[in-house]
Design brief:
By secondary structure, the protein is of the alpha+beta class. Helix content is about 50%, strand content about 20%.
Amino acid sequence: MSTMDPVAAQRAKRLQRTGDRRFLAWAIAVAAIMTGCAALCGLAVAATADMLRHSIIDSVFDDRLPFPTFWGMGTLGYLWSLGMIGTFTSAKVASWLLDTYRGGEQQPRILPSLAVCAAAAAVVADAPTWLAPLEVGIESDPVFHEDAPWSVFGWTAYYADIWLPVIVVIIAGLVVAHAIRHYRRLQRQIADRDRLLAEGRRTRGAITDMVLRTSANDQGQRSVVGAEVTVRFTDAHGVERWVTRFSRGRTAMPTTGFAMVLFDPRRPGDDHLIFVSFHPDPTPPEWIGTAL
């Protein structure tokens, strides 16, 4: 029977792995796989859009196939399956590997940006290959010759090879812009934390409230993913203050009724300059700041 605290053992293992370049190499490799799977997902989106477009602007008697068949008739289903499952699975693995390499330091949102940009690139590249209508403006019926002019919906579908790539490029641009803003806020937070580690003040705070956050898997089993913790501390002027922080994962969960608080003695009320840790000897990534 082991007498070692499993949470402490897990933290020790995480600290031992921090900075191990093997995890970084694996993270890059898995991120490349994620990018490829995201491109397959984008190709699935484009092929599905082409199929819907074809069903609107052309006759049901048109026997041209509006979807890829390089893996047989089930190609479209394979693209969706591999794209969705591969992207989410590899993104989760790559995120864990990066988190391990960085020692729990918050990550820039690179992986979502890569995935969305890869999917958008696939849609843009595939759109010019979509089936052209048998006759522009007419839903041609080569069997019974009961041709019908396109409605506004038909014309909208006809130009889908233009507006759909534009939309996905805009979405990708918004995701990248959001990732850049998040990265800048993260850099500022890390800079503030590092400055306070050298110039700020540490004190012991008391945990006054804790709300667990859980998630459920496909079988309905729930697991703890973090906790929202409220800490009371006294600043350099003897004023009691409260701060609430979200701890991620089980290793960052409070194990006692106390917490370490790092703050700027010149601006003790500035929430952005208050960091909390639930370890008596925290490493820099274990100081929790405001949510970004």
